[in-house]
Amino acid sequence: MTFVKENQKERFRFIDQWAEYVRTHSDKEWSTQQNVIINSCLRTASMTKEQYLSMKDTEREMKAGKKVKKI
């Protein structure tokens, strides 16, 4: 299967999963999660490439249990 077809298939699976989630959870629950995603997108939209990569490195270090230097 080509990359494009596989990508499309994956997107359709995600849409089906999300539609099921929205049907089976309260508006408050799923809209709160959407709010987190949207706010994150807006926050990173104003970052430079270097700021974004630094943030991702910090996140990776935190997940690995490393001590992170605050800037």
Q: What labels describe this entry?
A:
single chain, mainly alpha, 71 residues, 79% helix, 0% strand, extended
Q: Can you give a write-up of this model?
A:
The protein has about 70 residues and is mostly helical. The chain has one domain. The chain has three helices and no strands. It is extended. The model has no long low-confidence stretch (mean pLDDT about 85).
Brief overview, please?
It contains three helices and no strands.
Task: Please render the helix and strand layout as text.
Elements: H1 3-24, H2 27-45, H3 49-63
Mean pLDDT: 87
What is the tally of helical segments?
Answer: 3
Radius of gyration: 17 Å
Secondary structure class reads mainly alpha
